[in-house]
Amino acid sequence: MDSPDQAADIDTSRPAAARMYDYYLGGSHNFAADREAAAKVLEVMPDVPLMAQANRAFLHRSVRYLVDAGIRQFIDLGSGIPTVGNVHEAAPEASVVYVDLDPVAVAYSEAILAGTERAAIVHADVRRPEEVLSSPITRRLLDFDRPIGLLTVAVLHFVAESDDPDGILRTFRDALPVGSAVSMAHVTFDGRPDEMDRLTEIYARSANPTTFRTKDRLERLLAGWDLVDPGLTWVIRWRPDWPDDVEGDAAWCGNYGAVGWKR
Ligand code: SAM
């Protein structure tokens, strides 16, 4: 394999969420089919790159919050194609298990993590949490007697209701010790329902169909986690670095975020 893009199991003819997201963020690990689907998304919502950056900024703020609170181990579900500020870089003192389904995301993660002792990627489907939890990589890197930060940032909206997202999250929570935490970001129909409907149609033809959820539904999904202030809110309103910058309408970001503890 000359480059991670040439891994044998990559279907370049079908758009994939990881590679479309990479395109929104200005990356180069995407193919023509990804760029065509992303272009359709951008026709509907030209501000998607800004939304992706806001999501990424939430990821970083929530990781920083968890590190400041003493978390030194993370499971990053749907970690994506490596880009600026991966979790092991944002939290250099922590061990990180990345998890993704997309072969390009996995191949590039393996490439950048080669030689890194405290971070690795598991090629797995979050809809099968047992496979993530029992992976030899997870068991080698994480100590399940110490708190773990579970990151589900912009991934559970790729899990359909029929795949039981509540059960998936419960299985992860049950496996983690008390004192662990979750950070969740999740795209919603609230605020921009018509545009999100059209995005759902575009993603339905990709490898990763979407199920966007309402705030009420996400509150139920987060049941059992003790949410820190300000609770479940627009990602840009979650403990912003510059609060003055996020006054006014925040619904444009299309994405709710929350952090909660397992007490
Ligand atoms: N978490 C990163 C972030 O917020 O910057 C990347 C988010 S990206 C929008 C969503 C990622 O979830 C993609 O890399 C995609 O391949 C991955 N994904 C989607 N469904 C998945 C599944 N069932 N199991 C594992 N990964 C999945």
Automatic annotation (TrEMBL):
Top-level taxonomic group: Bacteria
Alphabetical list of InterPro entries matching this protein: SAM-dependent_MTases_sf, SAM_dep_MeTrfase_SAV2177_type
One Pfam family it belongs to: Methyltransf_19
Protein name: SAM-dependent methyltransferase
Biological source species: Cryptosporangium phraense
